[in-house]
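queue> pop job 88
queue> type: inverse folding (structure -> sequence)
queue> payload:
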């Protein structure tokens, strides 16, 4: 049981990548804290389970987050029915292998589109005056890969580094009404995506060696996300927050 609790009663958020992993954990914790959440993902059956588990608190948006038209429509409908947004979290992503000598251009571009461009589209749509409240807090998932550049993952690492650079710029644009934007850079967290990457050979099991505090779980990251969404973080913007179990400290030294 957590020693820190949040009260988001009456507040509204949108979370992408909400059918699994860290996106799902964030949507659940927001709902349990009293918020109403527009949960977006491609897997409808998993979103349906969430909506049934949290009736009236989690609203499903079943589509590919890269579809900016459907994204805009879903947010507009949610705002019309529930009210303007207090925050947004882009947790959707993909982690493909892109070795320089043999990468697939289509896959590399897809990684950039999901990890970077769809995040920018989300932030653009959410932060329209008609869609969000003043002091709206926005969070995009980056990664420690933006710092270390994992071997054979240049597209993923590049997209996550681009996210951090974009956020520093966007933060200056949206600050006039107290709106904020930050990034989270998780280390290795056991999710369906990361575990599949080891099974499929996208990642080596050696990536786990430098973890000083062991492998992470989604709830090891979600606490920082909820803090940044809360009014306790109202003086924080344009920053990246590393939550990596000590990975960047180099447990191999």
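queue> result:
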């Amino acid at each position: 049981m957590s020693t820190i609790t949040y009260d988001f009663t009456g507040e509204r958020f949108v979370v992408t990548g909400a059918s699994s992993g860290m996106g799902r954990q964030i949507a659940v914790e927001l709902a349990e804290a009293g918020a109403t959440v527009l949960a977006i993902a491609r897997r409808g059956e998993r979103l349906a389970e969430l909506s049934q588990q949290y009736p009236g608190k989690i609203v499903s948006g079943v589509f590919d987050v890269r579809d900016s038209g459907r994204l805009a429509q879903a947010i507009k409908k949610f705002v019309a029915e529930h009210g303007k947004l207090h925050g947004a979290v882009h947790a959707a992503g993909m982690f493909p292998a892109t070795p320089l000598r043999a990468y697939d251009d289509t896959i590399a571009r897809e990684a950039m589109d999901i990890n970077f461009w769809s995040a920018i589209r989300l932030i653009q749509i959410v932060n329209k005056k008609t869609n969000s409240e003043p002091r709206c807090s926005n969070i995009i998932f980056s990664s420690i890969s933006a710092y270390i550049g994992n071997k054979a993952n240049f597209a993923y690492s590049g997209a996550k580094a681009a996210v951090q650079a974009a956020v520093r710029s966007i933060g200056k644009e949206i600050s006039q009404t107290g709106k904020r934007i930050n990034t989270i850079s998780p280390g290795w967290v056991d999710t369906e995506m990361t575990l599949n990457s080891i099974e499929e050979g996208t990642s080596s099991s050696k990536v786990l060696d430098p973890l000083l505090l062991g492998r992470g779980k989604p709830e090891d990251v979600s606490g920082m996300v909820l803090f940044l969404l809360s009014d306790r973080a109202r003086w924080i913007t344009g920053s990246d927050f590393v939550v990596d179990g000590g990975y960047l400290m180099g447990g191999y030294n």
